[in-house]
Design a protein that fits this description.
By secondary structure, the chain is of the alpha/beta class. It contains 8 helices and 6 strands; from the N terminus they run H-H-E-H-E-H-E-H-H-H-E-E-E-H. It is globular and about 45 Å long. The structure holds iron/sulfur cluster. One of its GO terms (molecular function) is 4 iron, 4 sulfur cluster binding.
Length: about 230
């Protein structure tokens, strides 16, 4: 259960950080939770390097949690390793689904097709909840420009009794491009072949010019989120 105090602080942090830069938001999260109480969750996707660069400039030892669902592109795993070296990330932790959950629900490896919500639950939501258990606050890279479901995200909110900081809530695609350009960050290897947003292999497709960047995720289904950001409000 979320304590009334945590709700009050999320609202207060959100109000105080409305105009803060991403680095200032991460510094505030660090001050609020301490390095032992704070984690950044990254998919090592097409825009991830920008947030990881800002975090590394604040403190490269903040724990970074990466969910390897078992369905990641090889290119994403290689990109993770490249960014660890490029940015000097000191504490990247790869977390995986529980083997008993996979055996019970997805022994044939086709749950993504028949029941993607359960697949996301056992491969993403539950492992992440377990990995986040020791932390009181976390950082993620969602942006308001990513579509209707993210258009109103606050800078700071509560989720499952924890503070959740969204340092990129207010940023624009151009600002992200600027971070990549000024720091000479390597692009995700799949961007060049038309992937604007990269998640699990079976649920990711290329996007056409002018399409919403996340249109290639779960294409043809009503699903737009994996559940990581919708579990606790
Ligand atoms: S994105 Fe697709 S493959 Fe990945 S966990 Fe969700 S349903 Fe399964």
């Amino acid at each position: 259960m979320l304590s009334p105090g945590a709700v009050a602080s999320a609202v207060q942090y959100d109000q105080a950080l409305q105009s803060a830069s991403p680095a200032e938001v991460i510094a505030a999260a660090l001050e609020a939770a301490g390095r032992d109480g704070l984690a950044l969750v990254s998919s090592f996707g097409t825009e991830s390097a920008a947030l990881l660069k800002v975090m590394a400039d604040v403190d490269p030892a903040i724990p970074v949690l990466f969910l390897d669902t078992g369905w990641m592109f090889e290119e994403t795993l290689a990109y993770r390793d490249q960014l660890i070296l490029t940015l000097g990330l000191r504490d990247v932790r790869t977390i995986r689904p529980a083997t008993d959950a996979l055996a019970a629900h997805d022994s044939d490896g086709d749950l993504w097709s028949s029941d993607p919500d359960t697949c996301c639950r056992i491969r993403k939501v539950e492992p992440l909840a377990q990995a986040l258990a020791p932390f009181s606050a976390w950082i993620n890279g969602r942006k308001r420009f990513q579509g209707a479901s993210r258009a109103a995200i606050p800078v700071v909110e509560t989720d499952g009794g924890k503070l959740k900081f969204n340092p990129f809530a207010n940023v624009t695609p151009d600002e992200i491009g600027l971070i990549y350009a000024s720091a000479k960050l390597p692009p995700h290897p799949l961007v060049a072949s038309g992937f604007a947003s990269v998640g699990c292999m079976p649920c990711t497709s290329r996007t056409a010019h002018g399409e919403d960047p996340r249109a290639g995720r779960w294409r043809g289904r009503a699903k737009t989120e994996c559940g990581i950001h919708t579990s606790a409000g």
